[in-house]
Amino acid sequence: MKLEVELRGQQPTNLTSEVLAIEWFQMEAGLIKRRWGVRDSAPHFKQLGVAT
């Protein structure tokens, strides 16, 4: 991801970042019945220069 537009009042930094995320799916008849997910946003915003 690259911060190229204003984000939460923060001016663009033009920096890139990586996001760690995990998703779980419950399948039924070959279709997704439920989805859960989690991501670690703090390091993501720190890499973008938005958080300290």
What is the strand and helix layout of this fold?
Layout (H helix, E strand, L loop, with lengths): L20 E8 L2 E9 L1 H7 L5
Antiparallel strand pairs: 1-2
Please provide a written account of the structure.
There is one protein chain. The chain is built from 1 helix and 2 strands. The chain has 52 residues and is of the alpha+beta class. It has one domain. Strands 1-2 form a two-stranded antiparallel ribbon. The longest helix is centred in the last third of the chain and has 7 residues. The mean pLDDT is 83.
What key attributes describe this structure?
52 residues, alpha+beta, 1 helix, elongated
Compact description:
This protein has 52 residues and is an alpha+beta fold.
> From the helix content, strand content and strand pairing, which structural class follows?
alpha+beta
How widely separated are the two ends? 18 Å
Domain unit count: 1
What is the overall silhouette?
elongated
Average pLDDT number: 83
Relative strand content: 25-35%
Q: Count the helices. How many?
A: 1
What is the spatial order of strands in the main beta sheet? 1-2
Please compute the radius of gyration using only Cα atoms: 15 Å
Number of strands: 2
Run of helices and strands: EEH
What does the largest sheet look like? 2 strands, antiparallel
